[in-house]
Amino acid sequence: MAYRQSPADRLRGLSITLLLHVCAGGALLVGWSFAAAPPPLRAPLTVIDLAAPASPPQPEQETPKDAPEPVEQQDPVPPVPQRIEVPQAAIALAPSLPAARPVDAPQPRPAQAEAAAPKAIEVPPAVTVSSNAPDSWEGRVLARLASRKRYPATARARREQGVAWVRITMDRRGRVLAVALAQVSGSSALDREALALPHRADPLPEPPKERGGETLDLVVPVEFMLPR
């Protein structure tokens, strides 16, 4: 009995055969592409030598066979100067000069002292009054001061005593213009009281008409004595 292929078997076999041909063609195509591509060419390498070029050989200096030997130079000897004798008559002595006379220095002119000195201002002398003055204008001034005098407590506690002289400047009405200490008493407390006393007793008795001047200076003693 003969074998008879069905149409399905024929179609299956044809498909397998076609697939095998396609795979074989693809493999040949891939192999041909790899074989056709040539390998990349490498560029030739150039090596540069940086070493310095060798200097050309210098020719050797030939020494002459018959060269003369060097001669040593000697230092020249300086000539010795000859001594020349000069006769004594040819030497002339310089004439002696006369001694210089001293010149008197100019004396400075004396300054005009009289013109430069300031003139003294004439001040009328002050009247000094004693503590034992009689019944007069000066006596009344002392009595006025004595009635206003105070003994400082600090000086009394220390048993300090003394006499202070004060200079009183007053006008024609007896008003006190200035007070100055003419002589200290030895105690600062007593001196302060002596300076304050004329202002406390202001106004003082008016000076008499025979006392000239718009202002008068009067120096009076201020006594501070403690009873024994």
Automatic annotation (TrEMBL):
InterPro entries: TonB-dependent_transducer, TonB/TolA_C, TonB_C. It is found in: Cell inner membrane. It comes from the Bacteria. One of its GO terms (biological process) is transmembrane transport. SUPFAM superfamilies: TolA/TonB C-terminal domain. The keyword Cell membrane applies. Residues 110-119 have a biased composition (Low complexity). Residues 52-80, 100-119 are annotated as: Disordered. PROSITE patterns: TONB_CTD. GO terms for molecular function: energy transducer activity. Keywords: Cell inner membrane, Cell membrane, Membrane, Plasmid, Protein transport, Transmembrane, Transmembrane helix, Transport. One of its GO terms (cellular component) is plasma membrane protein complex. It is a single-pass membrane protein. Residues 136-228 form the TonB C-terminal domain. It holds the Pfam family TonB_C. Belongs to the TonB family. This is TonB C-terminal domain-containing protein. It comes from Novosphingobium resinovorum.
